[in-house]
Write a structure and sequence with these properties.
The protein is mainly α and 141 residues long. The protein has helices at residues 2-12, 34-43, 48-60, 64-77, 82-95, 98-111, 116-124, 129-140. The chain has 2 domains: 32-78, no CATH class; 80-141, Serine Threonine Protein Phosphatase 5, Tetratricopeptide repeat (Alpha Horseshoe). The radius of gyration is 28 Å and the shape is elongated.
């Protein structure tokens, strides 16, 4: 009897369609809105990371004026922070304002000659050849 039950189970295994796994529920997290970033920045006005996230959010939406305001506010709070000068320079570079980008990068290097992010961006030669020439001049000076 035990053997016949096994054989029957073995034989019927091929007759029954296998159950397919299905997704029961998907929960997706909404993308952060501009207001979310602004509220976080208002709660932590001296937190460089939070301010940088707000600035990057503005940059991604090509809201250059608000991005510039964020970086200038950070610089006003701490003018001796090379990261703040680098962020401003990076924004200017994305906007194509290479002279202003160069000035900001020079400020960052004047405060910290071994500022890794600034050295990397100058060494990488990002941008067009004429933009790169302007930036490389600052590294040579």
């Amino acid at each position: 009897m035990k053997t016949s039950s096994r054989r029957l189970a073995h034989a019927t295994r091929y007759l029954v369609a296998p159950q397919k796994k299905a997704v029961a529920h998907i929960e997706s997290k909404a993308k952060y809105t501009t207001r979310d970033y602004e509220e976080a920045a208002e709660k932590a006005p001296y937190d460089l990371r939070t301010q940088r996230q707000l600035g990057m959010h503005y940059e991604q939406s090509h809201d250059w004026e608000n991005a510039k305001d964020v970086y200038m506010r950070v610089l006003a709070q701490n003018p001796l922070n090379p990261d703040a000068h680098f962020y401003l320079g990076n924004m200017y570079q994305k906007m194509g304002e290479m002279v202003k980008a160069r000035q900001s990068y020079e400020e960052a290097l004047a405060l910290d000659p071994s500022h890794r992010a600034t050295l990397d961006i100058l060494a990488s030669g990002r941008g067009t050849s004429e933009n790169t020439a302007v930036l490389e001049q600052s590294a040579a000076d």
